[in-house]
Design brief:
heterodimer; A: 89 residues; mainly alpha; B: 133 residues; 0% strand; elongated
């Protein structure tokens, strides 16, 4: 059986580095859709981090939180795109 | 045997997520950043959550741990949520970026240049006619 808390630490660090790159794009982005792309990437990485953390600590509740977070972040992304479009709902 | 497969799946997923981060920093345009930021993270998350599913099924089958099967089923639902919502969000972001006036970097031909404008112009007079009647 895998020692969860040791081997998964490398995966946590790599995903955190990836999300830091996306945060740099959110800060530096010249237009608003650039920042939205960065936010969408951060959302997906956070979902994956939650699933891995739930598997590493053997807790099911964190994976349920990941499912709800996926659906809510999708709705928030859709609303921000509607705002950028400037159209009527 | 299963540990090696889990390690390989984790390695592939982490590699593609890092590629997504590097592509977000290095690409010159919104649309090319969308390629890196959504497709690579979707592909990487399939492999990482797949490794979690395999680990949970292995714990359930060989060690008779009931919690492992629950983790596997809930991870399948999380993966389905990612697979449905992520390409839809990318499509919405690309459409909003094109309609808000961001032009592709170094593009020669823009096929959507007249189509989206005509659609929005056609909608508004139709609503006004209905309101007048």
């Amino acid at each position: 059986m895998i020692e969860l808390s040791n081997e998964y630490l490398i995966v946590f660090l790599a995903l955190i580095i990836c999300s830091i790159m996306a945060i740099i794009r959110v800060i530096r982005g010249p237009t608003a859709p650039d920042r939205l792309v960065g936010l969408d990437t951060i959302n997906t990485i956070v979902i994956v981090l939650m699933v891995i953390f739930g598997a590493a600590t053997n807790q099911v509740i964190i994976i349920d939180v990941a499912i709800v977070y996926a659906l809510l972040s999708f709705i928030s992304t859709l609303f921000i795109t509607k705002y950028l479009e400037g159209g009527d709902f | 045997m299963f540990d090696i497969i889990v390690y390989i799946l984790l390695g592939i997923g982490v590699f593609f997520n890092l590629l997504a981060g590097i592509g977000l920093l290095r690409f010159p345009d919104v649309y090319t950043r969308l390629h890196a930021g959504t497709k690579c993270t979707t592909f990487g998350s399939i492999f990482i959550i797949g490794s979690v599913i395999l680990l949970g099924l292995k714990n359930w089958w060989f060690d008779t741990d009931v919690n492992g099967s629950v983790i596997a089923i809930h991870s399948i639902f999380a993966l389905a949520a990612i697979l449905i919502t992520n390409p839809t969000g990318a499509h919405a972001i690309a459409r909003a970026a094109h309609r808000s006036g961001v032009k592709p970097f170094g593009a020669v031909v823009d096929d959507l240049q007249n189509k989206t404008v005509k659609k929005t112009e056609k909608k508004k007079p139709a609503k006004n006619k209905e309101a007048k009647k």
